[in-house]
Amino acid sequence: MAINFKDAVGLHADALQLRAQRTRVLASNIANENTPGYSAQDIDFKESLARVEAELSGEPILEGDGETKFRVPYHPSGDGNTVEIGVEQAAFSQNATDFATSLTFINMKLRGIAKAINGQ
Amino acid sequence: MSFKDIAQIAGSAMAAQTVRLNTVASNLANADSVAGSEAETYRARKPVFATVMDDNLDAAAGGRVQVLDVVESAEPLRKVYEPGNPLANADGMVFYPNVNQVAEMTDMMSASRAFETNVEVLGRIRGMQASLLKLGES
Q1: Which residues does A contribute to its contact with B (CB < 8 Å)?
Q2: Which burial class, exposed, middle or buried, applies to B96 when counting CB atoms under 10 A from its CB (0-12, 13-18, 19+)?
Q3: Is A110 in Cβ contact with B135 (below 8 Å)?
Q4: With contacts defined as CB-CB under 8 Å, which chain B residues touch A65?
Q5: Secondary structure of chain A in the HEC alphabet?
Q6: DSSP string spanning B22-38?
Q7: What tens digit of pLDDT does each residue of A45-85 get?
Q8: Are A80 and A45 spatial neighbours (Cβ–Cβ below 8 Å)?
Q9: Which residue has the higher pLDDT, B28 or A112?
Q10: What band does B16 get if pLDDT is binned at 50, 70 and 90?
Q11: Which residues of B touch A33 (CB under 8 A)?
């Protein structure tokens, strides 16, 4: 029986990829903080991961279109910009931590595989 | 999709905020630059930001910032009677720029905060990339 690394690492590799994608979306929101008419966006992590899972297992994709979604601002602003910097900073920070978490999980999985290979 | 895109996005924002800080500096520096006619008087400058949607990338994933233009403020100039001023016109009037110093100061704070936020984003990206490089080491 061969070791399939993709199976061994499991969902965490896809989660990591999604986290990186979300970082880009959030970085773009922060960058466009002062751009008139810019609409803040975000990735629906749960839905996107469900999509990836469905694609991997060959099941039909049930929900969502896999697109980023627009954020609903707490306070609308006069120039049509919906970026609320505090919200974006919080989301960015949370996302960076989640990225580190996914990375840690992958590292743990890899250590497990290494242990299995060495037989100790 | 890569970390390079994110670095470019944060970099574009830093460049745009630098332009904004430049206009603020110019406005504040010229707040008292009087002139003898309305046409010659300095007018407050403001940059106009716009989002660049990259064609090669998923447009929904956001984009960089660009400075579309730097426009001059349409606020009325301040007309002051200063007959002793060598720049005064025949009626003894001089024109002061339409720079609102309080607004410029708040704009400056906003711009520098936005700049710092993007520097922070770059720092976090670097940390994420560094930890990704160490994948499987420990």
Answers
A1: 17, 20-21, 23-25, 27-36, 38, 41, 67-68, 85, 89, 92-93, 96, 99-100, 103, 106-107, 110-111
A2: middle
A3: yes
A4: none
A5: CCCCHHHHHCCHHHHHHHHHHHHHHHHHHHHCCCCCCCCCEECCHHHHHHHHHHHHHCCCCCCCCCCCEECCCCCCCCCCCCCCHHHHHHHHHHHHHHHHHHHHHHHHHHHHHHHHHHCC
A6: HHHHHHHHTTT--BSST
A7: 888 888 777 777 776 655 555 578 888 989 888 888 999 99
A8: no
A9: B28
A10: very high
A11: 13, 114, 117
Contacts 24+ apart (CB under 8 A), B64-67: B64/A28, B64/A31, B64/B8, B64/B9, B64/B12, B64/B13, B65/A31, B65/A32, B65/A35, B65/B9, B65/B12, B65/B13, B65/B15, B65/B16, B66/B12, B66/B16, B67/B15, B67/B16, B67/B19
Mutation target vs A (from B9, B109, B126; most A CBs, 10 A cutoff): B9
Residue in chain B closest to A9 (alpha carbons) equals: B136
pTM of the model: 0.83
- Tokens in use for B103? 């607004």
Are A107 and B138 within 8 A, CB to CB? yes
Six token digits for residue A112: 């497990």
Strand partners, B78: B96
Structure tokens at A57: 């297992």
For chain A, say whether B31 makes contact (Cβ under 8 Å). no
